[in-house]
Amino acid sequence: MSEREREELLKELYDKTLVGNGPAVIELTNQGLASGLGPETLLYEALIPSLEEVGARFERGDFFVPEMLIAGKAMAGALEILRPLLAETGAETIGTIVMGTVKGDVHDIGKNLVNIMFEGAGFHVIDLGVQVAPEKFIEAIKQHKPDIVGFSAFLTTTMPMFKANINALTKSGLRDQVIVMVGGAPVTQEYADVVGADGYAADASAAVVRAKELLLQRKKDMANA
After folding, report:
1. DSSP string across 114-170
2. In whole angstroms, what separates CA 151 from the centre of its chain?
3. Which of 14, 32, 89, 100 has CB atoms 3.0–4.6 Å from 50's, for a disulfide?
4. What percent of the chain has pLDDT over 90?
């Protein structure tokens, strides 16, 4: 595969993900692999940059929720193919994250996009879905022993569940064992600080960066303990 063909394929994969053309994304992913491109190349040079652009357009108001959903779905199709290959190449799992939309809230678009970004970055994601009660988070933490737990809320009325969840973690003696991250459209850094979360991010790509920082900090703290 010549350099030009490589660039063209990656650009097309980027473009098709951007517009959410699922079948084309799968076809191009398979084509790229057959031509000798590694799964990491497809992920980091086409799929993730495309999803980041989707996020940027959404923030500017050029894209709306349906466009974000379609692009996320298209990328999820490519990830189905790449996930086992990434595991084979020994693309190490950076960490495990348990994720869910809090009780009383059924919004999952933001959460799903964050999950895709986390998976793409090498995290193992356990998605508990929507309307997740504090007890269910506790259960999942005990079972999977994640590094991070992520609470998502889309409504101002469900944001107080962050505090309820953190209280439940404290009560069950798990609070010090996990990094707590919060996010969602109405959430701010100030609010995250008030409820006692460890981390907050405004969008999916920032969430990955922040999660990596928090994990690094935790490792340092444990080494110095």
Report:
1. HHHHHHHTT-EEEE--SSB-HHHHHHHHHHH--SEEEEE--STTTTTHHHHHHHHHH
2. 12
3. 14
4. 64
Taking a C-beta distance cutoff of 8 angstroms, is the pair 194, 185 a contact?
no
Please report which helix (H) or strand (E) contains residue 36, including its range.
none
Res 64: pLDDT: 82
Task: Give tens-digit pLDDT for 169-179.
Answer: 999 999 999 99
Q: Is 152:186 a contact under the CB 8 Å cutoff?
A: no
Using one digit for the tens of pLDDT, what is the confidence trace for 175-199? 999 999 999 989 999 999 999 999 9
CATH code for the part of the protein at 96-224: 3.40.50.280
Residue with tokens 């090498």: 122
Which residues, including other chains, have CB under 8 Å from residue 204's CB and lie 6 or more apart? 51, 52, 55, 110, 113, 114, 116, 117
State the pLDDT confidence band at 143, using cuts at 50, 70 and 90.
very high
Largest CA-CA distance found in the chain, in angstroms, rounded = 59
d(CA 174, CA 191): 22
Q: Where are the domains of the chain?
A: 3-88, 96-224
Where does 3-88 sit in CATH, by number?
Answer: 1.10.1240.10
- pLDDT surpasses 80 at 38: yes
Read off the tokens for 120: 């793409």
In this structure, the number of other CB atoms found within 10 A of the CB of residue 23 comes to 10
